[in-house]
Automatic annotation (TrEMBL):
Protein name: FAD/NAD(P)-binding domain-containing protein
Source organism superkingdom: Eukaryota
Source organism per UniProt: Calocera cornea HHB12733
One Pfam match: FAD_binding_3
Record keywords, A-Z: FAD, Flavoprotein, Monooxygenase, Oxidoreductase
Listed GO MF terms: FAD binding; monooxygenase activity
FAD-binding domain: residues covered: 33-354
Family designation: Belongs to the paxM FAD-dependent monooxygenase family.
């Protein structure tokens, strides 16, 4: 069964009608009140961009605090967007640039170096002007973004779970689990893979479990391990990456086949350090020995989660409501482009709203202007994110091969390293969303 997402035409479901009264019209103002559902990575960045353009964003987040997790990758396109907000240097300080990369195989027992490039990070920095940071502390990054939004006067309301969205000719309304509501002139779903906003627009489509699980965590830096290299480690039926994130800490992630979905419902976040260490030692990669065992043997924390795919919906918008990031185009994490592609979404959505529905016009933007911006955003972003999703899916399939001959063919290909063509693919993937000066 192929896991490559495809364009799926989902019958549009009518939005939940308002049984009593229409939305109260907003006072005549050129700015829109824009409700953003989700305060993960995309939500606060989009809010700050929209505020920069003169609109009035408000963010609602179902969790009581900012996002958890372990690490995420920040690529050059993210730093370009953060520069508009003056946050690029603060984000860069949360991790270390990836400078050197090494691919190793444990297919035949001892670790065989397939390929290494001591200047890959330098090439990216030289070509694009920004670093590639493989591993940034995700909770710290999420706090930076949420705190920055609040410091700029943007309301950020935690512990408010959106359960339904409705709209009529005068505006859009978000309903919350606690019985509260809020109304605005536009709403953006930044609420991830299991987006309530998307379900309100197009009906529920359950994600598909891929049969692959990830285990990610941090470890104390093993004595004698050269942490200047970012590592991609391959073997039969699994994969591992490891990269330095502090003076004495590595971030790592393992990908393994787990056919039964029930087995990935475990939550290691509530396990003691001793329990986590025991569970990590039960991973197939522990049996490889060498560097995988060195890294896993010094584990500090770990989480385990299943990999799910959901077809990209045919449309990302309806009326006054639009989707951004994983709510629109969820992707597997193998290339580290989920959060980075959402930054491109934020930039282009803000840019196109500035073009078609500016806050500076004499009258508030009408629904036709907003929908023109949404259509242009979708038409621009759909091809690029579809390609990113497909590339990530193929990468994931190559990492968990169980057939030994297929693994040997993969290793042979990896020995060829990053030629000119491969490097151009990498650069193109992280180049966006603009050249020269920002249009936002």
């Amino acid at each position: 069964m192929s896991h490559v997402p495809h364009r799926l035409v989902v019958p549009l479901q009518p939005l939940v009608p308002e049984p009593k009264t229409a939305l109260t019209p907003f006072p005549q103002s050129t700015a829109m009140k824009i409700i953003i559902i989700g305060c993960g990575i995309a939500g606060p960045v989009l809010a700050m961009l929209l505020q920069h353009l003169g609109h009035q964003p408000v963010i609602y987040e179902r969790q009581q605090t900012t996002q958890g997790g372990v690490t995420l990758q920040l690529s050059p396109q993210t730093f370009k967007v953060l520069r508009i907000l003056g946050l690029d240097k603060a984000a860069e300080a949360l991790g270390k640039p990836m400078l050197k990369i090494r691919y190793t195989s444990y297919l035949s027992g001892a670790g065989e170096v397939l390929f290494e490039d001591a200047s890959m990070g330098e090439k990216v920095q030289r070509e694009l002007g920004w670093p590639m940071m493989w591993s940034v502390d995700r909770p710290a990054y999420a706090r930076l973004l949420a705190d920055s939004a609040r410091e700029r006067g943007i309301p950020v309301r935690f512990g408010r779970r959106c359960v339904r969205v409705s709209q009529d000719e005068t505006g859009v309304r978000a309903m919350f689990e606690d019985g509260g509501e809020d109304a605005g002139e536009m709403l953006v779903g930044c609420d991830g893979l299991n987006s309530v906003v998307r379900d309100s627009l197009f009906g529920r489509v359950d994600p598909e479990y891929t049969g692959i699980a990830a285990v990610a965590g941090t470890s104390s830096l093993p004595p004698g391990l050269d942490a200047t290299w970012g590592r991609q480690i391959f073997g039969q039926g699994g994969h591992m990456f490891a990269v330095r994130v502090g003076e004495d800490k590595l971030a790592w992630g393992c990908t393994i086949p787990v056919p039964e979905e029930e087995e990935v419902r475990e939550d290691w976040r509530h396990a003691s350090q001793e329990e986590v260490a025991r569970l990590v030692r039960a991973l197939p990669l522990w049996g490889w020995g060498g560097e995988p065992r060195e890294v896993l043997g010094n584990v500090r924390e770990a989480v385990k989660f299943g990999m799910y795919l959901r077809p990209i919906p045919e449309s990302w918008h309806k009326g006054r409501v639009v989707l951004v990031g994983d709510a629109a185009h969820p992707t597997a994490p193998y290339l580290g482009q989920g959060a980075n592609q959402s930054m491109e979404d934020c930039y282009h959505l803000a840019r196109l709203l500035k073009l078609y529905a500016p806050a500076s016009q004499p009258q508030p933007p009408d629904i036709e202007s907003v929908e023109r911006a949404f259509r242009a955003y979708e038409q621009l972003r759909y091809p690029r994110v579809s390609k990113a999703v497909e590339q990530a899916t193929r990468e994931g399939q190559s990492r968990v091969m169980c057939d030994r001959e297929a693994c040997a063919r993969r290793d042979k290909m990896l020995r060829e390293g990053f030629g000119t063509t491969s490097m151009q693919v990498v650069l193109e993937a992280v180049r966006g969303p603009y050249e020269g000066e920002s249009e936002v």
